[in-house]
Design brief:
Blueprint (H helix, E strand, L loop, with lengths): L6 H9 L6 E3 L13 E11 L5 E13 L6 H10 L4 E3 L6 E6 L6 E14 L1
Parallel strand pairs: 1-2
Antiparallel strand pairs: 2-3, 3-6, 4-6, 5-6
Length: about 120
């Protein structure tokens, strides 16, 4: 169970300002008939700092859209996420775009992925 005002709660609240449908981990709660228009966030890893005084948590955000992710969506996600104190875009990675076909259809689905980091003191 998450603690009140945890980082994961803050991420969910931030992403809900950008997208009405937000999941943690996977979109398992999506019904088969629902459109593939949602955002998923998750923890990727925790790295110890070189001086061992804390850690860096890495978070992933994936926006999924039938057809394509709208122009400007990356800026909206970045703005929402970086409004969380201490959260910043992971400058070591690019924004990724991935494509698939929605099962049972010929509909293209685009997924945009971004990585964010947040330092935590020990």
């Amino acid at each position: 169970m998450s603690t009140p005002d945890s980082t994961l709660d803050r991420i969910r609240e931030a992403l809900e300002t950008v997208d009405d449908v937000v999941f943690y981990g996977t979109a398992a709660g999506l019904h088969e008939s629902d459109p593939w228009d949602y955002t998923v966030f998750s923890r990727e890893e925790t790295r110890a700092k070189d001086n061992l005084t804390g850690f860096t948590n890495v978070y992933s955000v994936a926006m999924v859209r039938e057809s394509y992710v709208p122009d400007g969506a990356a800026a909206e996600v970045i703005g929402a996420m970086t409004a969380i104190p201490g959260m910043r875009l992971d400058h070591g990675t690019a924004i990724g775009y991935y494509y698939t076909t929605k099962p049972g259809t010929k509909d293209v689905v685009e997924m945009m992925t971004l990585r964010f980091v947040k330092a935590v003191k020990s």
